[in-house]
Amino acid sequence: MLVSQGLSVSGATLLFNWHYKLRQFEPCTEDFAKASQKFIEENLSFALPEIDTIQESDDRTVKFLFKLHDGRKIETVLIPSNKKYGICLSSQVGCAMKCSFCHTGLQGLERHLGTHEIVGQLLAAQKWLTENRPDDDRISTMVFMGQGEPLHNFDSVRKAIEIFITQHGLCYAADKITVSTAGFLPGLERWKDEMPGVNIALSLHSMDTAKRNELIPINAKYPVEKVLDAIDKIPKKKKSFVIYEYLLAKGFNDAEVDACQLGERLQGKRAFVNIIPFNPFPGAKYERPTREEVDRFKAWLDVYDVPSLVRFTKGHDILAACGQLNSKSS
Ligand code: SAH
User: Fold this and answer.
1) In the chain, how many domains are there?
2) Under a CB-based contact definition with an 8 Å cutoff, are residues 157 and 99 in contact?
3) Mean predicted confidence (pLDDT) in 205-224
4) H or E element, residue 296
5) Distance, CA 189 to ligand 1 centroid (Å)?
6) Quick check: is 216 in a domain?
7) N or C: where does the chain have the smaller number of CB atoms within 10 Å of the terminal CB?
């Protein structure tokens, strides 16, 4: 990327090494050739997103509100799992998808994030962790499940993923990264060539057209059947699964018929269903099902031998759960 813009290969290697391998946050003090020095001074900035506020939950979840160079704000969440963390990254300020159950969606799209702002979330969160929890600072997985529709900002997300996985960069394995989409078909069609090996998560939420249209308005443009077919066509590694997220809203998509439609469609696929009980937020139009209702839904799905797990929320006390991220009202 940098090389195509005019930086020498050795200059780019030094820079990547300095920031990503040596984890230095200050401008690089290595000895650059004159031309590289000039390129860096004129073209690059090394500022990370600024931490506006941090909220720490009792369960080790950390929610960052980052301030970007134009004053806009985004959220990033560190989600604990055993002795590590997964990081939940944002891809846009707000979101254009307008999903009826999502706090971010109701905010509308303000702008896409640049690659540096996506990578910057990881670096800034890592820096904070290392400084504040030095014995507990491993971020092992990344999910694009924060604010925004990642495939609607495909180029920046793809370049950020390249930096995450390249051996010159952060050296994460592609299968440690999951991109979650509401079903943005143009992005899924590019996946095979441009994001090979990265895990796919689809926010499915209903197999019923009318219900899915209400939940995820882009279903009218990119119908779920076409989306599922596009996902089927993406080559997968032998042991990998596609994650299908199923938001469970009380009295809306939690009946036996909903579970049966889901089970029938996913039966026999390398599928894993994450059942996410709806996380309420102020002004929300859906309700969270009870524990019994969630268990009942899972039992109906189990009949089809489709593996699933109920995602009980972490960071609930700090509104850091799925769909609760809204940089305006935090
Ligand atoms: N735009 C992407 C990623 C962002 S949302 C997508 O749609 O997949 C990440 C996950 O949180 C999605 O599965 C989304 O449907 C879910 N989600 C959004 N709002 C929620 C809420 N209020 N309660 C539970 N899950 C929610």
Assistant:
1) 2
2) no
3) 98
4) helix 291-302
5) 21
6) yes
7) N
Atom of ligand 1 nearest to the CA of 277: 24
Distance CA 178, CA 143 (A): 5
Same domain for 41 and 57, yes or no, is: no
Q: Is residue 327 part of a domain?
A: no
pLDDT digits (tens, 9 = 90+) for 44-93: 777 889 999 999 998 999 999 999 999 999 999 999 998 999 999 999 99
Nearest to 116 by CA among 81, 91, 87: 91
Between CA 21 and CA 23 the distance in angstroms is 5
* Nearest residue by C-alpha to atom 12 in ligand 1: 203
DSSP string spanning 163-202?
HHHSTTTT---GGGEEEEES--HHHHHHHHHHSTT-EEEE
Give the residue numbers annotated as catalytic, written as ranges: 75, 322
Model pLDDT for residues 115-172, shown as the tens digit of each residue: 999 999 999 999 999 999 999 999 999 999 999 999 999 999 999 999 999 988 999 9
Is 24 in the same domain as 94? no
